[in-house]
Write a structure and sequence with these properties.
about 500 residues, alpha+beta, Cytochrome p450, five-stranded mixed β-sheet, two-stranded antiparallel sheet, 17 helices, 11 strands, about 10% strand, signal
Length: about 500
């Protein structure tokens, strides 16, 4: 027999065996599209727009169904009711981190984003407590964001109303805020090391959202044996980690156990306190991974949202005009915006929420996993099964948000023009794995956008009607298309 034919037959048998074990063993998974041997449902999924494929499947198989990434079953939750039931009502059982092979190659199960079990709980608890101690959600962190907003405005003034690509400038501001918390300092916007780090983060987000990475996550063996852009991700993260390690060594040399300056100091102090605990999760490797997670997640998601937000404000000048009128009325020109202003600015608050809802930044969230065998609806999902959450199906629910494909701040306003909260607003996910930096990100989006619109009119280089807001890639994240604009001082 031809070796290739024999290999295909063996793999097919293994695949059929795995299907039989799922159906007859401890698992009773939801139904879904019939998978092909070895490759699963990959040919039925649009790797350029995974979220759209999942929506199409949900129309056939309902809100809970199974797809196969290669030989691996993935349970998909589609729609608010299924997502809420899993992440909130059964939060602990669905709090595991699912398989994300490309990230696992980089993080090796450390840090906040891709860790699990006791390690994840301890690092997350410590990180939340430390961020709160340094003022996340309190006055001190707001001061840092306000100061950075002033720097952002000054940097935009230097463009002299000339056409510019806002990518790096909008990335620098949130990056500097997280740097002040982690490293106790900020960068100058022209610092070459800073620009290098920003480029690594930008490039990684683009690559992670590419069809090739979707394929790599389906077939992890490709990561180790084939060339491709996944190797660039590893190299970029190695660059960031080497920078983080440099800063950690500097902190070790100047550490004052009684006066921690930032997150790294607090982690080093915790390491010292647990140095006799052989099972401690607080190690140098864990610190590097945790800081890298916070550094990247605290920079790229907010900067991409800001970039998408300005594109939408260019596209809809009537919305921008209403925000600027509200800024003029509530804040004026003689002081900086603050978070207390938000409660008096329902339209601006609605616009910020609508930007996040409309762009659907992480369409399928980061993968979850069940931490034990779970009875969910009429199914039995075995421990460790990866769960894919369709945040698109929640943020673009057409009953909660009429005409969800339209950008419309009225989605978050009642008939009287007051801000209207929605349980369907889940851009930061929900439940036990909700984003650690949610409060900081919300603060940055409001203060940065209001500061920009307080000081500048936005001018498009083309007719606003001709601006395309369709993401250039829509895989792991929705990445906005390239555009330029002019910041005209008010």
């Amino acid at each position: 027999m031809d070796p290739a034919v024999a290999l295909v037959l063996c793999l097919s048998c293994l695949f059929l065996l795995s299907l039989w074990r799922q159906s007859s063993g401890r698992g009773r998974l939801p139904s879904g599209p019939t998978p092909l041997p070895i490759i699963g449902n990959i040919l039925q999924l649009d790797v350029k727009d995974m979220s759209k494929s999942l929506t199409n499947f949900s129309k056939v198989y309902g809100p809970v169904f199974t797809v196969y990434f290669g030989l691996k079953p993935i349970v998909v939750l589609h729609g608010y009711e299924a997502v809420k039931e899993a992440l909130i009502d059964h939060g602990e059982k669905f709090s595991g981190r699912g398989s994300f092979p490309v990230a696992e190659k980089v993080n090796k199960g450390l840090g906040i984003l891709f860790s699990n079990g006791k390690r994840w709980k301890e690092i997350r608890r410590f990180s939340l407590m430390t961020l709160r101690n340094f003022g996340m959600g309190k006055r001190s962190i707001e001061d840092r964001v306000q100061e950075e907003a002033l720097c952002l405005v000054e940097e935009l003034r230097k463009t002299n109303a000339s056409p510019c690509d806002p990518t790096f400038i909008l990335g620098c501001a949130p990056c500097n805020v997280i740097c002040s918390v982690i490293f106790h300092n900020r960068f100058d916007y022209k610092d070459q090391r800073f620009l290098n780090l920003m480029e690594k983060f930008n490039e990684n987000l683009r690559i992670l959202s590419s069809p090739w990475i979707q394929v790599c996550n389906n077939f992890p063996a490709l990561i180790d044996y084939l060339p491709g852009s996944h190797n660039k991700i590893v190299k970029n993260f190695a660059y960031v980690k080497s920078y983080v390690l440099e800063r950690i060594k500097e902190h070790q040399e100047s550490l004052d156990m009684d006066n921690p300056r930032d997150f790294i100091d607090c982690f080093l102090i915790k390491m010292e306190q647990e140095k006799h605990n052989l099972q401690s999760e607080f190690t140098i490797e864990s610190l590097i991974a945790t800081v890298t997670d916070m550094f990247g997640a605290g920079t790229e998601t907010t900067s991409t949202t800001l970039r998408f937000g300005l594109l939408l404000l260019l596209k809809y000048p009537e919305v921008t005009a209403k925000v600027q009128e509200e800024i003029e009325r509530v804040i004026g020109r003689n002081r900086s915006p603050c978070m207390q202003d938000r409660s008096h600015m329902p339209y601006t608050d609605a616009v910020v929420h609508e930007i996040q809802r409309y762009i659907d930044l992480l369409p399928t969230n980061l993968p979850h996993a069940v931490t034990c065998d779970v009875k969910f609806r009429n199914y039995l999902i075995p421990k460790g099964t990866t769960i894919l959450i369709s945040l698109t199906s929640v943020l673009h629910d057409n009953k909660e948000f009429p005409n969800p494909e339209m950008f419309d701040p009225r989605h978050f306003l009642d008939e009287g023009g007051n801000f209207k909260k929605s349980n369907y607003f889940m851009p930061f996910s929900a439940g036990k794995r909700i984003c650690v930096g949610e409060a900081l990100a919300r603060m940055e989006l409001f203060l940065f956008l209001t500061s920009v619109l307080q000081n500048f009119n936005l001018k498009s280089l083309v007719d606003p009607k001709d601006l395309d807001t369709t993401p250039v890639v829509n895989g792991f994240a929705s990445v906005p298309p390239f555009y330029q604009l002019c910041f005209i001082p008010v």
